[in-house]
Amino acid sequence: MRARHWGLEGPSFLLIGQRIMASVTRRFPPWLRKRIPPEGQSRRVRELLGRLRLHTVCQSAHCPNLCECFARGTATFLILGDVCTRHCRFCAVGSGTVAPPDPEEPAHVAEAVASLGLGHVVVTSVTRDDLPDGGSGQFAATIAAVREVSGATIEVLTPDFQGCWDDLYRVLDAGPDVFNHNVETVPRLYASVRPEADYGRSLAVLRRAHLREGDAMTKSGLMVGLGERPDEVLAVMADLREARCEALTVGQYLRPSPEHLPIASFVTPEQFNTYREQAEEMGFEAVAAGPFVRSSYHAEALLGDHLCARRS
Is-contact 102 82, C-beta < 8 A? Predict the structure, then answer.
């Protein structure tokens, strides 16, 4: 089956998460403009998240697709709080003093899933290097809670758990349908982009996730526009395939604030199409590549056919 892909149509004005990026003076190209959709279910989603004291990566990471996804009645749940123990220079999620995991959080995620009637659930987290299990137990509990109330497919986007395989296996043994761990960028840029991560360790996480007994599809994501070269992107794709990664997302890095890494380049839609075609040729089952692509953006549309085939 040919990998599915999708694109963007029509210019309007740039929206980054919940705010216009007035503080970023670099002019954005026309393909980085999108319409704000009608409100749709946005108010309902926001009220539900507030009532259940849930965080989303949509809000915490200032995702450019927030209004669109909330209007469609979807959200990507961010568990283990909204404060991270790492200091990646591309990410808008706050770092600092963390709180203990909320024992009610898994049940609250499940309630939100049931209330929104989601067919595909994406659960991610901040990195919690302070916790003995890296937060893996909260992932497992959340998967179990969602399974009790919904037949939705479940995708988890996890940190690297500092290479502790028991923590990784705790998540995998809970039975997610998709296991996602993002390599984010090319290895040459790790020191400046995600200094507390390790490229080889991230590849090992994906490789072990694939080899673990179970049917979870493995997935990873890349940002471009940070100063990487196309040949480096291709090399990362090859490394991911060697690690048996099956699905890939590639999107444009957008600077969350003046305190974050500057945008080195705006990757054209034509180059994104080239990346998609090259990834498909390498054997990825599902590929999304485009300016507004993010790990969980239209995840159900990207993976739906493949997940149905695995469940049948």
Answer: no
pLDDT tens digits, one per residue of 117-138: 999 999 999 999 999 999 999 9
Closest by CA to 48, choosing from 16, 19, 73, 82, is 73
- Greatest Cα pair distance, the chain, in angstroms, is 51
Instruction: Tell me which residues of the chain have a pLDDT lower than 50.
Output: 1-25
Are 128 and 80 within 8 A, CB to CB?
Answer: yes
Closest CA relative to residue 282, chosen from 220, 198, 192: 220
SS (H, E, C) the chain: CCCCCCCCCCCCECCECCECCCCCCCCCCHHHCECCCCCCCHHHHHHHHHHCCCEEHHHHCCCCCHHHHHHCCCCCEEECCCEECCCCCCCCCEECCCCCCCCCHHHHHHHHHHHHCCCEEEEEECCCCCCCCCCHHHHHHHHHHHHHHCCCEEEEECCCHHHCHHHHHHHHCCCCCEEECCCECCHHHHHHHCCCCCHHHHHHHHHHHHHCCCCCEEEEEEEECCCCCHHHHHHHHHHHHHCCCCEEEEEECCCCCCCCCCCCCCCCHHHHHHHHHHHHHHCCCEEEEECCCCCCCCHHHHHHHHHHHHHC
In this structure, which amino acid lies at residue 153? T
Give me the domains of the chain, ranges plus CATH numbers.
30-311 (3.20.20.70)
Tokens 């179990």 identify what position?
Answer: 144
Model confidence, pTM: 0.89
